[in-house]
Write a structure and sequence with these properties.
Blueprint lengths: L1 E5 L8 H14 L3 E6 L8 E5 L2 E5 L6 H4 L5 H11 L6 E5 L3 H14 L3 E5 L14 H19 L4 E4 L2 H10 L4 E3 L14 H8 L7 E6 L5 H14 L4 E6 L3 H9 L6 E3 L5 H10 L2 E4 L5 H4 L5 H8 L3 E4 L2 H10 L2 E4 L3 H13 L1 H15 L5 H19 L1
Helix pairs in contact: 1-16, 3-4, 7-10, 8-9, 8-14, 12-15
């Protein structure tokens, strides 16, 4: 198959990671995939081949936030020109933003090929839009709220990231729906030596270390309170962060006199992040039971599982259910006391922590490996093409 995928995120960010993980394994299965991403560089057009996937970035004159938003007219025009040049059998749009959905729907109709949409987050008022600041909520939020379902109604088929969105799609849309949960790059992220990884980052060899990686600010205040309680329950605990360091977390640590126990490694590449994951005893994924969380599924879960370390999270949605049922960590109620207590339990019981880490790695190598998920997606593509024609 000749497949075109469109995402509004730039390479190595957000939904690009999901699309590319599927694309590279589809290429391994003999398909040709072209992935149009958001532009990472100002005023520069770029073409690259990443793991066999042709990745195209548009020329764009807007500032970074605008050109990566999926609303840029420069990006929209550039994608339209790119799509007019290549033939394909199927178009897969990841989310609804105009730079993704408009050219995808237009060229699918023009070429008489299926247009599939991936629903990876609830963007409207019940989801991401409801978490934005007032100004953004009444601008971008309203646009997302209106566009999301209008665009998805035009889809020939849908892929969804979790069962909450699958159930929501079943009540709103009449097209076929295929569940593609968060997967794991088990070939790229492997369990490494804890001791060597700590030495690499200058971390104490014998300290209890919890790690969190990510960019989304959801549950930042809950996370901050949980860390303070954990540091009191288990003195000497270090919290290591990759990605963003949230202001609420820094403030809470400073007020509790724990600033030296909060260590940020900043934005690091996959190779360094793999080592950082290996340096930890436990991996933290705060995920309280609120609407925005029930309708999403963090990419970091796959990284955590592949790293072979136990996870502490909450009992929310598919993520909480998977962690509990597969025995790869502890899923607790939405209190800071419960979250901190679960982390302390894993610090205190090394045998339990190691066993949960082994189970997580086994899961990452089997039914949650992106290779396995890509095979299922390929079958869904074939079924969609058969129905379409």
């Amino acid at each position: 198959m000749r497949i075109v995928m469109l995402v509004h995120n730039p390479p190595h960010c957000g939904t690009f990671l999901r699309a590319h993980a599927l694309a590279r394994h589809l290429v391994d299965r003999g398909n040709r995939v072209t992935l149009l991403s958001g532009p990472a560089n100002w005023a520069r057009r770029r073409k690259a081949v990443l793991d066999g996937v042709t990745v195209l970035e548009s020329f764009d004159l807007l500032p970074r936030r605008a050109r990566e938003s999926g609303f840029s007219p420069f990006d929209l025009i550039a994608r339209t020109r790119r799509l007019s040049e290549d033939a394909c059998d199927l178009i897969h749009c990841f989310d609804h933003r105009p730079a993704v959905s408009f050219p995808g729907l237009f060229f699918a109709h023009r070429r008489r090929v299926p247009c599939i949409f991936d629903w990876g987050d609830l963007w409207g008022r019940e989801g991401i839009a409801g978490e934005r600041g007032r100004l953004t909520r009444i601008s971008v939020g309203l646009a997302d709220d209106w566009l999301e379902e209008k665009v998805l109604r035009r889809a020939d088929a849908l892929t969804v990231i979790n069962t909450a969105l699958r159930d929501r799609a079943g009540t709103r849309f009449s097209c076929p729906v295929h569940l593609v949960p968060v997967g794991a790059n088990s070939d790229a992220i492997k369990p490494l030596s804890k001791l060597e990884s700590r030495r690499r980052f200058g971390l104490p060899e014998d300290a209890p270390i919890a790690l969190h990686t990510g960019l989304a600010p959801y549950d930042a205040e809950y996370f901050a309170e949980s860390f303070v309680r954990l540091a009191r329950l288990h003195p000497g605990t270090l919290l290591v962060l990759t990605g963003h360091t949230y202001p609420a977390l820094k403030k809470a640590a400073a007020q509790a006199g724990l600033s030296r126990q909060l260590i940020s490694l900043g934005m690091i590449d996959l190779e360094a992040r793999t080592a950082a994951l290996a340096a930890a005893d436990i991996l933290l994924l705060p995920y309280t039971n609120r609407s925005v969380n029930r309708f999403r599924y963090p990419n970091k879960l796959g990284d955590y599982l592949a790293a072979g370390r136990p996870i502490v999270t909450n009992r929310t949605g598919d993520l909480g259910e998977l962690v509990a049922e597969e025995g790869v960590g502890l899923a607790v109620e939405d209190t800071a006391e419960s979250f901190a207590g679960a982390a302390k339990r894993l610090f205190d019981d090394e045998e339990l922590a190691n066993e949960m880490g082994r189970r997580g790695r086994a899961l990452a190598e089997s039914k949650l490996d992106w290779r396995y998920l890509a095979a299922g997606l390929e079958r869904f593509y074939q079924e969609t093409l058969a129905r379409f024609h």
